[in-house]
Amino acid sequence: MQTQTDPRPAPAGALHNPLGLLAELTHRCPLGCPYCSNPLELDRRTDELDTATWARVFREAAGLGVLQVHLSGGEPASRRDLVDITAAARDAGLYTNLITSGVGVTPKLLAALADAGLDHVQISIQDSEAKSADRIAGYEGAYVRKRALAAEVTALRLPLTANIVIHRANIERIDELVAMALAMGAARVEIAHVQYYGWALRNRAALMPTREQVERAAGRVQALREEHHGRIVIDAVVPDYYARFPKPCMGGWGRRSLNVTPSGRVLPCHAAESIPELEFWSVKDHSLRDIWESSPSFNAFRGTGFLPEPCRSCERRELDFGGCRCQAYAIAGDAKATDPVCHLSPHHHLVEQQAAMREDVPYIYRRG
Amino acid sequence: MAVAGKWLEFTAGSLEGPAERARENAQVNETAATPPIAPDARPRLPRGVRLVHNEAQGGWVLLAPERVFKADPIAAEIVKRCTGDATFDAIVEDLATTFNAPPERVRTDAAALLRGLADKKLLDL
């Protein structure tokens, strides 16, 4: 029997098993990157979860279906129990990925992490030129330490990803940056345009590239992919403000991943606390399953049923889920709105205006 | 530290992301013309790539740096044999015998799968 098709998608209730857990072990970080997307207000050291609680969170995550844990921060090496935390994640059966600035990971620590079962290392790279790289990181000598760590990672035959955050100061050096990733022995490189959340919003005018620069960079990424096919995998994170359609943020809200803050609050994405009306639950009070299935913040924007027009009748609605809720709130003032990055959004002109507000002003570094 | 890559980690980790799937398909097509795999090659998963069975995700999955690939039962049977000990010839023969399939067909299918994985840096040949 043929039934009338409802133009709206299935109700928000459809629950998936999460795949990834972003474990923000600490907000402490030696670098001061102007594009940091962590929130303006950071969790304090004294509030950080202890080793045993992280171990429980990992076991609960594996029970929910999570396959990979990303040990991040801040700088995860700021925690003295990083080896124990890594071993606990591996014991829970999770694939363990260390996301590091490279500063603070000594050869001894790296060897201990490898012995504990660490699967993969991602190092952030600020630029292919030492002086510029250190200036962006706000840390003298960071570049050299990152290169040294990369050599130690590959000597242990651990797979390495170079994460390169792209903005106006380095966007003209895509070729040099990919060449550097190859020289470091990375099997994978992320060309990640700055996402303007948290601290990065403060530096937007100083970081924003021009549309011409973005288009040139995209062309170079495509050409380099073909040139280095089979040698290095080049993944790209699109520059939101110049996109035509929004990114499928997090693969859908409350659909693919969880984020645990240093003090234990569980968020659908790491910028979610920028939306004031949401209520977040903590692993101190609830199991991860309880939070995934029942917490108000995870259920707030599940599925696509909450979306207004133009998303409601858009055929891309199940591809991009209307984009990013945090961006909708930050730019349109409404977390349920179509991501203003979309050229169909009634607020899209605001994105164009903000992208045009470029200014050569000094970075406001993140400290503390 | 740099967290701008986080979006990608998770979207790249999606099992069902249409964009991902389109990219995978594009890469598979692209590799169709690549050279065959040497009979005496001993394919193996590099450090950081693991094949695991996971009930919650509905079967075999290949875990790799910031990626998760769902493996259908045939792909899993092929990858399971990539231990670094068996030659490609031996793997083909084993598969053909185990599944009672024509060896040349098995060779072509297995080579396409393994070449695709190697191009994504998920397999050492």
Task: List strands and helices in order, with pairings.
The complex is a heterodimer of chains A (368) and B (125).
Chain A: E1 20-24, H1 51-64, E2 68-72, H2 82-91, E3 95-100, H3 107-115, E4 120-125, H4 130-137, H5 142-155, E5 160-166, H6 174-184, E6 188-193, H7 204-207, H8 211-227, E7 233-237, E8 257-260, E9 266-267, H9 288-294, H10 296-300, H11 317-320, H12 325-332, H13 348-356
Parallel strand pairs in A: 1-2, 1-8, 2-3, 3-4, 4-5, 5-6, 6-7
Antiparallel strand pairs in A: 8-9
Chain B: H1 6-12, H2 18-31, E1 50-54, E2 59-64, E3 67-71, H3 73-80, H4 88-98, H5 103-119
Antiparallel strand pairs in B: 1-2, 2-3
Helix pairs in contact in B: 4-5
How would you briefly describe this protein structure?
The complex is a heterodimer of chains A (368) and B (125). Chain A has 368 residues and is α/β, with parallel strands linked by helices.
What do you see in this structure?
The complex is a heterodimer of chains A (368) and B (125). Chain A has 368 residues and is α/β, with parallel strands linked by helices. Chain A contains 13 helices and 9 strands. Helices cover 33% and strands 12% of the residues of chain A. In chain A, β8 and β9 (266-267) form a beta hairpin. In chain A, α1 packs parallel to α2 (82-91). Helices cover 46% and strands 13% of the residues of chain B. The N and C termini of chain B lie far apart (35 Å). In chain B, strands 1-2-3 form a 3-stranded antiparallel beta sheet. Chain B is built from 5 helices and 3 strands. By secondary structure, chain B is of the alpha+beta class. Chains A and B meet through β2, β3, β4, β5 and β6 of A and α1, α2 and β1 of B.
Give the SSE order of chain A as H and E letters: EHEHEHEHHEHEHHEEEHHHHH
User: Would you identify the regions of chain B where 5 or more consecutive residues have pLDDT less than 50?
Assistant: 1-32
- Supply the helix-strand structural class of chain A: alpha/beta
Per DSSP E runs of 2 or more residues, the count of β-strands of chain B stands at: 3
Task: Give me the number of helical elements of chain B.
Answer: 5
Beta strand % of chain A? 5-15%
Cα-based radius of gyration of chain B, to the nearest Å: 15 Å
Task: Bin the helical content of chain B.
Answer: 40-55%
Percent helix among the residues of chain A? 25-40%
Termini separation of chain B: 35 Å
Q: In which order are the strands of the major sheet of chain A placed?
A: 7-6-5-4-3-2-1-8-9
> Which sequence of SSEs, written as H and E, runs from N to C of chain B?
HHEEEHHH
Cα shape of chain A: globular
Structural shape of chain B: globular
Based on CA atoms alone, the radius of gyration of chain A comes out at: 20 Å
